[in-house]
Amino acid sequence: MKILIIEDDLSLINGLSFVIKKQGYELDIARTSCEANEIWSDGKYDLVILDVSLPDGSGFDICKKIRKVSKVPIIFLTAADEEADIIMGLDMGGDDYITKPFKLAVLLSRINAILRRSNNFNQADTELNSNGIIVQLLKGKVYKNGNQIDLTTSEYKLLCMFMENPDIVLSAEQILSKLWDCDENYVDNNTLTVYIRRLRAKIEDNPSEPKMIVTVRGMGYKWSM
């Protein structure tokens, strides 16, 4: 795996380089925004470690540029410890925000954790496809026979749950244990029935005789292939 460090503090760069290379990661270093832009255009990275205050610009601006073209994990590593800065960094797409001073062992643990999550995510399926229904998981979009369908958050979560478990009967209790509405209120049995009825109305050709979300009497529901 390859990491890009964008940092102007030479002593910190030396320390980071030592511990990161010792873990077996490849490493490139940029000490200015200009260098970062040049290196980024030529390289593919698995992680970016980014300082906020650079001699010729802001790490926030670099983050914005990266997020326009890439989902690569970004760790902000900076002395800017104001709450507003932390919120800004995370809201614009940072995956972690570590303030100086810090312990190298802690940083290394976070690097390893983020790279593990990223690697597992990249290996996962990014699309569900069944019965003419396509769910694009990265974009949160749903299509039926090529036409986009508008679903509520709860309907979307319910559809994904069914499609990820084809031909498996899911009891109401199993569904309720995982399904929360958009206000994080627990969904009860009556609400679940309403969600399923609304979802069927949007994806079934004949909602009164569903072929996809099938009721298994006395047991629950299943997604029929």
In total, how many beta strands?
Answer: 13
Global morphology? elongated
CATH superfamily of the largest domain: Response regulator
Topology as a string of helices (H) and strands (E): EHEHEEEHEHEHEEEEHHHEE
Number of domains: 2
Largest sheet: 5 strands, parallel
SS class: alpha/beta
Q: Please report which band the strand proportion falls in: under 5%, 5-15%, 15-25%, 25-35%, 35-45% or over 45%.
A: 15-25%
- List unreliable stretches of 5+ residues: none
Provide the CATH top-level class of the largest domain. Answer: Alpha Beta
- Classify the fold: give the CATH topology of the largest domain: Rossmann fold
Mean of residue pLDDT values = 87
- In the sheet with the most strands, the strands line up as 2-1-3-6-7
- CATH architecture call of the largest domain: 3-Layer(aba) Sandwich
Separation of termini?
Answer: 39 Å
Count of helical segments? Answer: 8
| Proportion of residues in helical segments | 40-55%
Radius of gyration: 23 Å
Features:
Rossmann fold; Arc Repressor Mutant, subunit A; 225 residues; 5-stranded parallel β-sheet; 13 strands
What does this structure look like?
The chain is α/β, with parallel strands linked by helices and 225 residues long. The protein folds into two domains: 2-123, Rossmann fold (3-Layer(aba) Sandwich); 127-223, Arc Repressor Mutant, subunit A (Orthogonal Bundle), CATH 1.10.10. 43% of the residues lie in helices and 22% in strands. It has eight helices and 13 strands. The chain has helices at 10-22, 33-42, 59-69, 83-91, 104-123, 153-163, 172-178, 189-203, and strands spanning 2-6, 26-30, 47-50, 53-54, 57-58, 74-78, 96-99, 127-130, 133-136, 141-144, 147-149, 213-216, 220-223. It has a five-stranded parallel sheet with strand order 2-1-3-6-7, sandwiched between helices. Helix 4 (83-91) links the parallel strand 6 (74-78) and strand 7. Helix 6 (153-163) crosses helix 8. It is elongated and about 70 Å long. The mean pLDDT is 87.
